[in-house]
Each structure stands twice: as C-alpha cells, then as structure tokens.
Amino acid sequence: MPRIPPEEIERIKKEIPVQRLAEARGIKLKRQGKDLMGLCPFRKEKTASLHITPATNLWHCFGCNKGGSNIDWVMEAESVKFLHAVEILRDGNFSACHGPIKVLKSNHVRGKLASPVDFNAEDRELMKQVIDYYHENLKKSPEALSYSYEAGFFQF
User: Fold this and answer.
1) Of all helices (H) and strands (E), which one includes residue 130?
2) Residue 37 gets which letter from DSSP?
3) d(CA 54, CA 96)
4) Residues 45, 42: Cα–Cα separation, whole Å
5) What's the CA gap between 127 and 125, in Å, rounded?
6) Is residue 154 within 8 Å of 148, Cβ to Cβ?
7) Which of 26, 49, 69, 138 is 20 to 30 Å from the Cα of 116, by its Cα?
8) Cβ distance 2 to 141 under 8 Å?
C-alpha cells in the first residue's frame, strides 16, 4: 500500500464527521452542551460514556478509555490498521454534507488485509515477492519519485 500524504489524512479527518460514523452504526446521540453523548459501541454498557466533540471531530469513551479521530473510529469499529482505515474512508468518497455514511457497506474485507506474499513459497521466491512488493510501492511514492529526479537517478 503506498504512503498516504499527510494532507490527504488531514483532509479525511476534517471532512468525515465522527458523529455521522457513530450514527451509521446505529448509535443514538444526545446533545449535551456543545458535545454529543451516546452508548459506546465497543463494549456493553447501560450508561452513555461515549463523548463526541463535533468542533474538533474527536471522540472518547470514558468507560473503555478509547478515542481519537474518525480514522481511529474506523480502526476500532472495523478491526483494521491505520492505512486500511484511511483507505476505507477515502474510497467511500465521504463529504461532510453529502449522502449517507457507507463505511459498513464498503467493499473492504473486515479484519486482516490479504497478504501481498505467499508465505508457503520457498525462501528465494518469498524474498523476490517482498522485493517486488516494495519496488511497486516505491514507484507510487511521490517522495521517492521526486528524490530520484532531484538526485539524478534514472526513473524506476
């Protein structure tokens, strides 16, 4: 998976409200001052301990002490790692004002991503698969491409 530029991550964090992600999971939120409260979806509870702050687009559960941005929400809700969570949010074409949140209906595989290599391969073949994987991702990296041009290296 190629490196995601920090600007893209910041855009995703700003444009996709945690509130809408929570509501998409069926969480009923109640306004409490400027913030929202609801039942935490990551544990069983009877008293609302999920706290969402729309002004900063952050969430925190005072019961299980989990929290963070919308990316952290997807990581926790879908049991995926950071890059996969960003891909889920990015591929959904989310916008702060348009359409329903589609996180639960996206075409991603819940949990682990498919391995880019065959771990049953012989050592030499496995090493070749790893090298090819990193080479392909390096060719997609804007930083690597700009460095290769600046340093006078040939294009990959």
Assistant:
1) helix 123-140
2) E
3) 12
4) 9
5) 5
6) yes
7) 69
8) yes
CATH 3.90.580.10 describes domain 6-105:
yes
Mind listing the pLDDT tens digit for each residue in 42-85?
Answer: 888 888 999 999 999 999 999 899 999 999 999 998 888 898 88
- pTM of the predicted model, to two decimals? 0.60
Tokens of 155: 């294009």
Q: CB pairs under 8 A, 24+ apart, for 96-101?
A: 96/14, 96/15, 96/16, 96/17, 100/24, 101/16, 101/20, 101/21, 101/23, 101/24
d(CA 88, CA 74): 8
In the numeric block, which tokens belong to residue 5? Answer: 């530029």
